[in-house]
Please model this.
Amino acid sequence: MSLINKFLDQTLPESFEAYLEHRFPDFRYVAGNCETRFRVWLKKLTSELVKLTFLATALGLGCIGGLYFLRGSWFLFKDTAIGARYIEIVNAAGAARLSSVLSLDFIELTLIVMLLTVIVCLKVGVISQLTMLRRFFYVGRSALVKLGWAGLVCALIAPRLVEFYPMSFSLAFGLCFLPTIGILSAALASSGKLFPELNLLLFWENLRQKREVKEIKNDIARIMEERGRE
Model:
C-alpha cells in the first residue's frame, strides 16, 4: 500500500472512507498514481537542482578567477603613465567606481551574484513556461534573441545587486551578464522539464467540446426516452 493510502486510512473517518469508495471506486488507485507521479517529479526536480548547482559553482569559480585577473590588469594599467593620464583626464569618477568594485571581496561578491542569478533565472523560467513564452519566444530562436533574454534578466538582477553593494547599474549589469548567459538557458530547460504549460485557450476549447458532447448525449437520451414512451 502506498504512503498516501496509509495516511488516508489513518486520518479519514470510516464512514467518509466508505462514502468515497462508494462514489469514487478508483480513488485509492488515483491517490497511489498521484503519489507515484509526485515521486518521479521530485526525483527529476532534485536532479535538475543538482545540475544547476554544479553549473553555478563552475561559473562562480570562473567569475572569481576572471575578477582577480581584472583586478591585476586594472591596477597594472593604473600604474602606467598612459593609465594615470587616462584616469586624470578622461574618466576619473568611473575609474574610482571601478577601483572600489575591484577592491571588494570577490568570493562574497560572486556568491551573491550567483544566488541572485539562479533565483531570478528560475523565476523567469517558471513564469515563461507556464505562460508559454518560452515555447514561442525562446526555444529555437537565434542567439541574438537569447542574448536579449539574458539582457532583460540582467536588468532584473542588477537593481538587486546594487542593494548589496554601492555600485552603478551599469557595473552591476556587467557583473551579472556572463553568469546570466550560462544560467538562464539551463534554468529555462529545467522549467520546461518540470512544469506544464497553462494553455488556457486549449483548456476552454476542450471544456466547450465536452459540454457540446454532453448536450448531444442528453438530447439522444431524451429522444430515446420519448420513443420508448410511444
